[in-house]
Amino acid sequence: MRAIQVSRYGGPEVLALTELPTPVPAPDELLVEVSAAGVNYADTHRTDGSYRGGSLLPFVPGVEVVGRGADGRRLLAPIFSGGGYAEEAVIPAARAVEVPDEVSDGQALALLVQGLTAWHVLRNSARLAPGETVVVNAAAGGVGTLAIQLAKFFGAGRVIAVASRPDKRELAINLGADVAVNSSLDSYAEQVLAANDGRPVDVILDATGGKILLAGLEVLAGFGRLVSYGNAAREGRPLVDIGALAEGNQSVAAFWLVPALEYPGGYAEPLAELLRLTANGTISPILGGEYALDQSRHAHEDLLARRTTGKLIIRP
Questions:
Q1: Residue 190: partners with Cβ closer than 8 Å, 6 or more residues away
Q2: Fewer C-beta neighbours within 10 Å, C or N terminus of the chain?
Q3: Nearest to 217 by CA among 200, 229, 230, 233
Q4: Per-state percent for the chain, helix, strand, coil, to nearest 5
Q5: pLDDT tens-digit profile of 115-169?
Q6: The listed CATH number (3.30.470.20, 3.90.180.10, 3.30.499.10, 3.40.50.170) that belongs to domain 2-98+286-315
Q7: Domain 114-259: top CATH class
Q8: pLDDT attached to residue 231
Q9: What angle (nearest 5°) sits at the alpha carbon of residue 306, between those of residues 14 and 217?
């Protein structure tokens, strides 16, 4: 079968198209013919060797797939050990979820890593209460576009989207954000406060890290929560002053999806809700582009350059 393999750590240039044997499923796994694989920032971190937990070389990237099983069912599943950028993949049988006909491959993949992340950071990390103000950094990304819609569905009083370009800010408004502001670091705090009528905000969702994360702390209200779920800026983990947090009764939480799926109610239930909300049109996952298997390098390049919006997928 054709697959993308990483034999050395590096940038998108190390993604190499190759021929590999068809994987053999274990008793608790299923073999699927991959119809689409999702592209995530985590894939770029695995490729350059910076991912939490690491990946042993060589490996096939791709941690989420939609494919047909031997019985013909259309299945969605995460494969955190990798293997998605390939014509065939093995998935854990216990994690396989059947996809409704009303949900496309790209939509389903958007719900798996990004959708579950958006659901958990709002529900379990931020513990959003009705009427609260939510700031979504990187609002035009895969998680951000879903977080905007879910925040409104969960009862947020105001959603403030932060994005780098006018077209991305327009997308955020079309998805339900009340206000969209520029992500310029120099004026971040000023813009966010102005967007909330001069008042501090209750919740900030941040996938950027670095200086933007620290700027967010300047605009948190008392008992406000900032949730960090990524480090797209690759600036390292900023030091947070616990004393300063105590003075404002503020909280900083960190989220990683992999262990969250093992918690009771952490996987099947929220994913079923996301699929149902998508099938009935309540939320609309945004698709950011399709790439052939031999274009995987370009998918990573576009993602890292922030040229994309929404969910990127690879079609083997």
A1: none
A2: N
A3: 200
A4: 35, 25, 40
A5: 999 999 999 999 999 999 999 999 998 899 999 999 999 999 999 999 989 999 9
A6: 3.90.180.10
A7: alpha beta
A8: 76
A9: 115
Using 50 as the pLDDT threshold, list the residues of the chain that sit under it.
Answer: none
Q: How far is CA 229 from CA 9, 76, 208, 209, in A?
A: 23, 23, 8, 8
The per-residue pLDDT for 183 is 86
β-pair type (2-6, 15-19): antiparallel
Do residues 60 and 34 lie in contact, with contact meaning Cβ atoms separated by under 8 Å? no
* The residue count for the chain: 316
As a whole number of angstroms, the distance between CA 154 and CA 115 comes to 14
Q: What is the pTM of this model?
A: 0.88
Q: What is the dihedral of CA 300, 306, 312, 316, to 10 degrees?
A: -20
Residue written as tokens 């890292």?
304
Name the token pair of 155.
């009862």
Write down the pLDDT at residue 233: 65
Which residues lie closer than 8 Å to 89 by C-beta, 6 or more apart?
23, 31, 32, 34, 37, 62, 65, 67, 79, 83
Query: Where does CATH 3.40.50.720 sit in the chain?
Result: 114-259
Closest C-alpha among 211, 216, 254, 255 to residue 234: 211
